Amino acid sequence: MSMVMERSLKYLDERLGTSSLARKTLRKVFPDHWSFLLGEIALFCLVVLIFTGTFLTFFYTPSVREVVYEGPYAPLKGAEVSAAYNSVLRLSFEVRAGLLMRQIHHWAALVFSAAIVIHLCRIFFTGAFRRPREVNWLVGVGLLFLTLGEGFTGYSLPDDLLSGIGLRIFYSVTLAIPVVGTWVTYLLFGGEFPAPDIISRLFVFHIMLIPALLLALVGVHLAILVLQKHTQFPGHGKTERNVVGKRLWPEQTFKSVSLLLFTTAVLALLGGIAQINPIWQYGPFVPYSVTSPAQPDWYIGFLDGALRLGPPLDLNLFGFTISEVFWPAILFPGIAFGILTLWPWIERRFTRDRAEHHLLDSPRDTPVRTGIGTAGLMVFFIMFLEGGNDIFGVLLNVPVETVTRILQWSLVIGPVVTFLVTYWVCRSLSRSRLHPAHISAGLRLSRTPDGGYETVSLEPATDDSEREPTPAS
Amino acid sequence: MTDSDRQGSERVDLDRQTEQGPTLTGGQRRAERRTAIALGVAILAGIGLFIVYFAGGQTQIEGILFFIAFGGFGIALGVWANHLLDAREVVEERHELTSGAAGRQALGDALTEEVGPVLGRRSVLIKLLAGAGGALGLALLLPVLSLGPAPGNSLKVTPWARGKRVVDETGELVTVDTVPEDGFLTVFPEGNVGAADAQTLLIHVRPGSLKLPPERMAGVPEGTFVAYSKICTHAGCPVGLYRAESQTLICPCHQSQFDVSDGAIPFFGPAARPLPQLPLGVDQEGVLIAQGDFSAPVGPAFWDMNRGR
Amino acid sequence: MRRTATLLGGIAVLALLLTPTTGTASSRRGAALAAQQQPADSPALEARGRELYQNACASCHGPDPAGASYYATVPSLNDVGGAAAVDWALRTGRMPWKDNKGPAIERGEPRFSEEDIRALTGYIGKAVGDAQIPDVDPARGDLQRGRELYGQACAACHGMNGAGAALGGENIAVSLQDVHPQDVAEAIKIGPGQMPVGGGLTDYEFGTAASQQEVDDIAAYVESLRSQPYNEGGAPIGGKGPVPEGFVAWVIGLGLLVVAARWIAGRG
To answer: Nearest 5°: phi and psi at A63?
Structure first.
């Protein structure tokens, strides 16, 4: 150890007692599987979001006060726009690397939410949410909801026409809450639409309240993971009582840092070469103007699609009104996300499995869970497609109404068909000899007495028993 | 580095010497070379970024250079992790998370040990404690009510009223000659240009094409100038798309479609209620005026929408 | 594995960079328009126009342009907007009808020469009594005012950035990101398909100075969508907003990162 290193370690150890904690932590074992890195992709997207977001905060003005635009985007020269919109235009056109930072930030938000979803799928399909990890499942689902809110508040900040339309829809959805809807909306927005206070309030949510909760929950998420140790796929030498993998230092650190660098690289590439949210082209928000096509960012797209699917059914209850918006925008997400949140307990009710699990399931071995999962994903996917029904209509040369009808029927039949197909695929894969947890450990070639050859496949040991030869396939 | 290695000189890595011997395997040498190249490329890209930034900056080039720089660095560390480390697969035992019944009992004892006699009994003090907590908790929520005004009647009324003159977005008065046949225009009450809840579509339909009942036709000057609220009754977007040929409106947000000839009733899509009609008249100067507020509350539905106005 | 990943990544990046904006190239069509202000009034040209009409148009539009057409779904040329409508339909390749399936009439390259188009517009315009072809010059227009007018009258259907949108049923508001100013002026005058006459502009009256200025202003803005679209952020991915952006985020963004994760995890 070099002199400098020795002295630094001594300094910290004498004051903070770091050496023993550090030694224990660095020696922790984490299993190696690429799908365990999906959560890290999300984490690193968050890191990029925080760095780029901080930069953006230095330039953004959370105010709807009218100013005159005098920047280089010629069509808006001399136009009256809000200070918020003006500040984002200035950042995009007049601040060096400003547009790059802004675009990286927005792409990072899209990839962040995508990574969370795919990470959630990995947890779900491998049964990693089972005891003792139910609490961490709740934390993760909470992170998902916070992310949706963070994204929505974020892209509404520039006060452009497209996001302003989205805010109007959000206003209408909160209005549709039974009994307290009008009060909740007026308190949240500060009055009748377009409530000018909302921009500065969204700013507070976006840079302070939600990030604080996000970071706190991420901390809890990682702490629980370290405390309970990571799960692992079954295989040779792996049991419910151990963790087989590589140490945090050096291998996992190198790998994680590499993934961090790759994440930053991909986000920087997208931020540089792929234009996203060109708010100057949409123009400033005007409450009586609209542009087509009008969609929200992808992670809210399923809600937009749900709204488009209908049904056009409002209810009159003793003189009180339940808006048609209630079913797709309040009831459906409530039920869907409720099921998602409570899934560990719902599943346990049917499987009666109260054991602790540190070995993961192969999705094909749990066909019902896998089938329900894919059916659920299909529901969200259908809604996402409907959210873009006008764009797909033009793309496929089909009327918008046809797209909607097809997707309405798909919503009824699709999840059932998806479940059945998935179930059947899982069962047949399970029965085949191509099982990942039971791939033969090798083949042994031996000579038969009458001069021929015979291959014998060696069964892998799933515990520490002897390897046994079985007849080859 | 490679030359001196092949010549077997004394320049060996001290750390490696204790573990495996003085030389790297062929594979490791290749990995080392790849790592070096990747890092070299990253350095070049980094220098490139300096040049581009001080030359004025260019978003696409900056993005690509960052990609190369970070990507090169990432490749280097990835190769290093997979080929140049001595890391072995390790087995770590899991320990029980629970401290067992004894441990939980100890915690329970720690919590209750010195708490005293009051907590054990159903005393007035406990009830008062709960009451104070509740009252204070609710009181702490009071500032939330300051966040916005009471909804009151505001969602059910707009600035439109009997006699208000119709103006366009620029404030110009709208007469029966303003809008050509098959044309449409966004209008407001005079003095409230731009008021979001007052936004109205004035449509000049073809004569004889309206199928409204007589009391509604009374609000359609010359039988051809009909006005509907521009706020979609589904989720509040401005219904700006007018299809002149079929005299129908389509809302871009969720594709609700309204039949202008038939009282703006929705015939496709998720909207459940027609766009409220604004009854119009004409004053002495030929300027269009409103004859009252809209026929129903504008915009999307809410709980007490139909309870008094 | 890694080679495949690099190849895929490279293809993805290339595809992104080469994504064209929607709309068909029309600059060639417009170039020769300088001469096309008023159809020339020569008997030879009119005769040529009549001959072309009988060969190419009469089978649907009827023997007389001013009379009824043969089919209920085909409008009579008497009430489509006169010579301006003919000029517009022929130069944008919409007519003769290509029998395409699906919503909206497709645009394309014109299938008549400049001479023939002048002949047809002259003949039909005279027959229906409306021979005026609009005049337009974006250079005379005010870009900022054009943007405001466009926002009021056109953006709801055509999109603030001209990307175009579906209008339900058989209707599409076309992309305006690559159209000639003449198309804009003519469309405003005739109100083709579901588009209202006057394009949604207040007080539009063909021939008045005020309306001419408004058309020039809007043409200036539409022209800027083609000549100076301000795609400073990179490839516009069609300009259709968050839906294609979402696909790119999943397929390219997350896709590349999953490939990276698999490579990093190695033989783990």
So the answer is: -135, 145
Give the pLDDT of residue A473: 38
Torsion of CA C120, C122, C125, C131, to 10 degrees: 140
Closest by Cα among A105, A349, A397 to C170: A397
Whether the upstream peptide bond of residue C96 has omega within 30° of 0, thus cis, is yes
Minimal-distance CA residue of chain A relative to B147: A187
Q: Do A251 and B145 lie within an 8 Å CB cutoff?
A: no
Strand extents, DSSP E, A391-433: none
Please tell me the distance from the alpha carbon of residue A321 to that of residue C144, in angstroms, as a whole number: 44
What pLDDT shows up at residue A115? 98
- Residues 358-417 on A with a CB inside 8 Å of B are 358, 389-390, 400-401, 404
Report the distance separating Cα A192 and Cα C200, nearest Å: 29
Token duo for residue A114: 């995508």
Least confident among A342-346, A436-440, B50-54, B233-237: A436-440
- Name the pTM for this structure: 0.89
Query: Which burial class, exposed, middle or buried, applies to A333 when counting CB atoms under 10 A from its CB (0-12, 13-18, 19+)?
Result: middle
Q: Which residues of C touch B169 (CB under 8 A)?
A: 152
Each residue's pLDDT tens digit, B203-225: 999 999 999 999 999 999 999 99
Q: Chain B: give the shortest CA distance to residue A427, in Å.
A: 32
Contact across the interface for A75 and C161, Cβ inside 8 Å = no
Instruction: Look up the ipTM and state it.
Output: 0.89
Q: How far, in Å, CA of B61 to CA of A272, rounded?
A: 7
The long-range contacts involving A467-472, CB below 8 angstroms and separated by at least 24 positions, are A467/A441, A469/A444, A472/A443
- Residue B52: CB atoms within 10 A of its CB come to 18
Confidence (pLDDT) at C261: 96
